[in-house]
Amino acid sequence: MASDILKDAEARMKKSIESASHDFSTLRTGRANPAILDSLKVEYYGQMLPINQVAAVASPDPRALLITPWDKGAMRAIEKAIINSDLGMVPNNDGVNIRLNIPALTEERRKDFVKQLHQKAEAGRVALRNIRRDAIDQYKRDETYTDDDIKRAEKDVQKLLDRYTVELDELAKAKEAELLEV
């Protein structure tokens, strides 16, 4: 039972790290990365759909994204979603594809992205701490554990938290270096 609680906490922490890593990838760097469009929703036949469900997104070169809609009728909706987003990019429509040229980041914009990164990293740390709290509460609710067992379990869960916090911090540090790279 004790190992089940610990395994569950570890699995949840892994998922939390994966989620934070995905969040970090949505932050725009100087290079074109299709992940920056993951949060973009397109109104298509009255429904709000993620862009990857209405078009293929590719990166033909380091400074551009190429969006190829599955249906030509979605072209205007995709353009509108890009213009209304906070991406700060202007779509170029050639009738078949939409091309997004990724402008070089200014120093101020880089700092804004670093602030967003720190907020996302802190949200990841909070999620990890919540998982630790939940695991410890599970141990305390189970009456088969003695006080010594609970203390040992708290130490084990804390070690797990420390390991995943270091991993999260390393991911954030790598992304920050990528954002500040000129």
Describe the model:
By secondary structure, this protein is of the alpha+beta class. 57% of the residues lie in helices and 15% in strands. The protein has helices at 2-25, 75-84, 107-141, 147-180; strands at 41-44, 47-50, 55-61, 64-69, 91-93, 98-101. The strands form two sheets. Strands 3-4-6-5 form a four-stranded antiparallel sheet, covered by helices on one side. A two-stranded antiparallel sheet has the order 1-2. Strand 5 and strand 6 form a beta hairpin. Helix 1 (2-25) runs antiparallel to helix 3 and helix 1 (2-25) runs parallel beside helix 4 (147-180). The relative contact order is 0.16.
- Total number of β-strand segments? 6
Strands side by side in the biggest sheet: 3-4-6-5
Task: List the uncertain runs.
Answer: none
> Please, what is the average pLDDT?
87
Order of secondary-structure elements: HEEEEHEEHH
**Class by SSE composition:** alpha+beta
Q: Major sheet: size, sense and barrel closure? A: 4 strands, antiparallel
Rg? 21 Å
The DSSP helix count reads 4
Which shape, going by the Cα principal axes?
A: elongated
Q: What percentage of the residues does DSSP assign to strands (E)?
A: 15-25%
Question: Fraction of residues in helices?
Answer: 55-70%
Calculate the terminal CA-CA distance, rounded to whole Å: 51 Å
Subunit organisation of the chains: single chain
